[in-house]
Design a protein that fits this description.
Distance between the termini: 35 Å
Strand content: 5-15%
Bound molecules: zinc ion
Largest sheet: 8 strands, parallel
Amino acid sequence: MAQAPARCERHIHFSRFRSLSSLQTYYKWEIYGSKFVDVLNKPYQIAIASNMIIDFHTHIFPKDIRENREKYFPSEPAFRLLYDSPKSKLVGAKEIVAAMDDQGVDRSVVFGFPWKNSDIFKPQNDYIMAAVARFPDRLIGLCCFDPFSKAAASEARRCLEGGLAGIGEIAFYQSGIDDAALDKLAPLMEICLDKDRPFLIHTNEPVGHMYPGKTPNTLKQIDALAARFSRNKIVLAHWGAGIFFFNLLKKDVKDHLKNVYFDTAASPFLYHPEIYRYAVEIAGGDKILFGSDFPLIQPARYFEELKKTSGLSKAQIESICGTNAAKLLNLL
Ligand SMILES: [Zn+2]
């Protein structure tokens, strides 16, 4: 560590570092770049961009849910599906901010879960609003609920007026995004369109191995979603099930995907790192948003992939890791 400050001096913009630990992260990166060995022999955290790093996809939960998850299983089967295993971590606001400090993430978009019951999603969304109020420079919140709830539209309005930035991660874990789901999304999309807010929705690849939380959504359903709400700024989670490939079609789909973004959540579990390069080429480098799905995967794992194996330039990586999100969230 002793040599690092002199070598780094010319690169450092101290305003970027909100804590000593994120400054240390940067030093580690510099040391790594010049092949110095960390005396502690710990895995290196790799900071990969000099602009603001925004993680667009993270989940946090209030204390009662973190500590008593099984209490929520009987009335919330989708929650059980994803969080039955004690290995599926649940974290709160303080923990995510500590992880961000440690890994050099400036801001995270945080949200809960698409709970069916309003007596669960309301306090969950209250928790997100409180987290954003507590860490206004670090956390950006989305409101989340089951769109089939009668209270969905009023909850969306309440939360957007209460300081949240959009809606997400909405998911239809058991049904896929069928016609009935699209009808339930219509009033929510209207609210987002009216307020120019993003709408983040879970999608997953329709082929490949099964895992908890993999829904029966189809590419046709995702195209129908994009077509019906083509004026909305929609973020399709988990690379949009790969639908961006059809941006190469001569007709229809390219138009539908005009305002669609793709997040990278869970990518290291699902795809080879070459996906970044192909997605930039086919979907467009301005349409991809780094999202970690924290605490499922640590941001540093993405940074390592992006830096070492994605085949992207520093400028392309910076767009993915922050600039695109900052534009979408009207932060610039
Ligand atoms: Zn998801």
